[in-house]
Amino acid sequence: MPEAQPKKERNFIEQIVQGDLESDKWAGRVVTRFPPEPNGYLHVGHAKSICLNFGLAAEHPGGRCNLRFDDTNPVKEEDEYVRSIIDDIRWLGFRWPGASETDPATGVLFASDYFLQMYEWAVELIKKGKAYVCDLTPEQTREGRGTLTSPGIDSPYRGRTIDENLELFERMRKGEFPDGSKTLRAKIDMAHANLNMRDPVMVRILHAPHHRTADTWCIYPMYDWAHGIEDSIEGVTHSICTLEFENHRPLYDWFIDAVNEGRTPDGAGPWGETIVHSQQIEFARLELTYTVMSKRKLLTLVEDGHVTGWNDPRLPTLGGLRRRGYTPESIRAFCRDIGVAKFRSTIDVVRLENAVREDLNKKAPRVMAVLRPLKLVIDNYREDKREQLDAVNNPEDPAAGKRKVPFSRVLYIERDDFHEDPPKKYFRLAPGREVRLRYAYFVTCTGCVKDDKTGEVTEVHCTYDPATRGGDSPDGRKVKGTIHWVSADDAISAEVRLYDRLFTDEDPDNPKHDKDFKEFLNPDSLEVLTGCKLEPGLAAARPADRVQFERLGYFCADPDSTAAKPVFNRTVPLRDSWARRAKKK
To answer: Could you state, in order of their start, the residue ranges of all structural domains in the chain?
Structure first.
């Protein structure tokens, strides 16, 4: 599990948990859970919930947080999603009870493990007169539900006898009826002010193979019925949910109270021992600027080819952030920084970007890379001369030491580090101007070579001062500009993918826009550069290795990267370039 962090003031959920411990409400127990549906990939919004639930459990001795998949819809669920979610949570640094380092799925729980118990308790509610089998179609059920200002209409099947309901429910289980022909509904109140309480569907018929139970079941619990039951079976004390479930809480309470009717703590009641009634607490989900978090909209972006897949580095999925170069530590730090609140708000994505900058600043090795190379020839440096210069690996970490970088007569520098006619406040290389080559020498530009047809500068010439080896002048003269470089004979060629924000509007999903959210897609969200020149040591970089390209930003070796063809993804620039653009505007 992640190391404990310095605590801020307790958020409102932590205060509730602490109050429950002080009152001994749960006999000193803290049991939470993270309950994803295995029908998609996790994103940074899920990370907030993961950090909250696992973090609450970790704060208290004996606390535990279950990883439980709410796999109640066989049509949309796949093992691929299960494996991905498990991998993402482990990558974030969290473990659940019984987790194994050799078998990632060990200790993982599934709602499908409880199908039989849910069925038996549904039968119990029928026997108590609290549930009935209904033959209305889904459309008829919706029509009869009523509105916020008008009551619903009782189903014509609401008055079936207990025996008739028991028989029909058993036949539903045996597969005697087609999909959608019958449902089991709770018998509550069709005039209730909360529409969720108007005889909601508990169980539906669905003849579809399940990713774990295969064809064992052809009836499946609805989420509202399963939600509280799963928590109860696992002994969850604090059921942490996002705000959209707040209006469902009375229904979850009703289901547990209905099962507990006739039960007693000692099990002496006619229905046995009381089951656990978990405490549900809602918090505001994470919303970020310049992206969308809706699973449906993310799926649209993937299926329509706007991104390359669920792990496209422009997406807010954990797989995408991971591929882009985000660290688990940075995501956990971001979740701590934004805190937990009861009211909806949108977080500036800059806070996420700053979290990874701060983390990588401390740990990422510094290297030199030239993304848009321009040849620099040092005319007074011998052609046969070679040097190995000392370069600092990380000024934030003295223990990281130094490395040797090759230096020669012909180098590559960034194309925008030379300007033939420099504007005001341009301090880099220009005719007659002296600059520092990082870790190397002072050089003075003597001229340039241009393409005869295009007029483009193809080569810059300069002279160097041998006395300034290491980047300092013995006579004390100063230079205003320092530029990075790589040795032309030693550099490796690489592909570099410059990722940027996926949308140009900070709130692309705002319903006030009279446009589809896809119309705000950023056409410059990805620029692929080939022929980039990197320090030779980067040939050994493995996928997920993170570095700082000096003066450019933080980068990560992509899974596509090989020794023959290195590929690096930009995680973030060194500074927020969007803030500078906004300031110019």
So the answer is: 12-285, 295-365+494-584, 369-484
Q: Where are the alpha helices (DSSP H) in 277-432?
A: 295-303, 318-324, 328-338, 349-363
Task: Report the pLDDT value the prediction gives residue 269, as an integer from 0 to 100.
Answer: 87
Query: Which residue in 189, 184, 190, 158 sits closest to 171, CA to CA?
Result: 184
Contacts for 497 with CB less than 8 Å, ≥ 6 apart? 313, 526, 527, 528, 529, 558, 567, 568, 569, 570
Neighbouring residues of 39: CB distance < 8 A, sequence distance ≥ 6? 73, 76, 77, 78, 81, 295
Please say whether the dihedral angle defined by the alpha carbons of residues 315, 319, 321 and 323, taken in this order, is positive or negative: negative
Closest residue by Cα to residue 73 from 109, 103, 112: 112
Q: Which amino acid is at 166?
A: L
Class of domain 295-365+494-584: mainly beta
CATH of 369-484, one of 3.30.43.10, 3.20.20.70, 2.40.240.10, 3.10.100.10: 2.40.240.10
Helices and strands in the chain: count of H runs, count of E runs: 13, 27
Dig out the tokens for 541 from the structure.
């970089």
**pLDDT score for 344:** 86
Residues 6+ away with beta carbon under 8 Å from 577: none
Contacts of 16 (CB under 8 A, 6+ apart): 238, 279, 281
Catalytic residues: 37, 285, 295
| Span 418-477, pLDDT tens digits | 999 999 999 999 999 999 999 999 999 999 999 999 999 999 999 999 999 998 899 989
* pLDDT for 157: 98
Alpha helices in 157-200 (DSSP H): 162-174
pLDDT for 438 equals: 97
Residue 77, pLDDT score: 79
The fold of the 12-285 domain, in CATH, is Rossmann fold (3.40.50)
Residue 326's pLDDT is 98
Q: Starting from the edge strand earliest in sequence, which strands make up the sheet with 109-110, in order? A: 31-34, 64-69, 109-110
Q: What does the pLDDT read at residue 8?
A: 65
Give me the torsion for CA of 9, 10, 12, 16, rounded to 10°.
-150
Q: How far is CA 471 from the centre of its chain?
A: 42
Give yes or no for a contact between 532 and 368, defined as CB atoms under 8 angstroms apart.
Answer: no
pLDDT at 9: 83
Q: Flag residues of the chain having pLDDT under 70.
A: 1, 3-8, 578-585
517-548 burial code (b ≥16 CB/10 A, e <16): beebbeeebbeeeeebbbbebbeebeeebbbb
Q: Do domains 295-365+494-584 and 369-484 have the same CATH topology?
A: yes
Side chain identity, residue 311: N
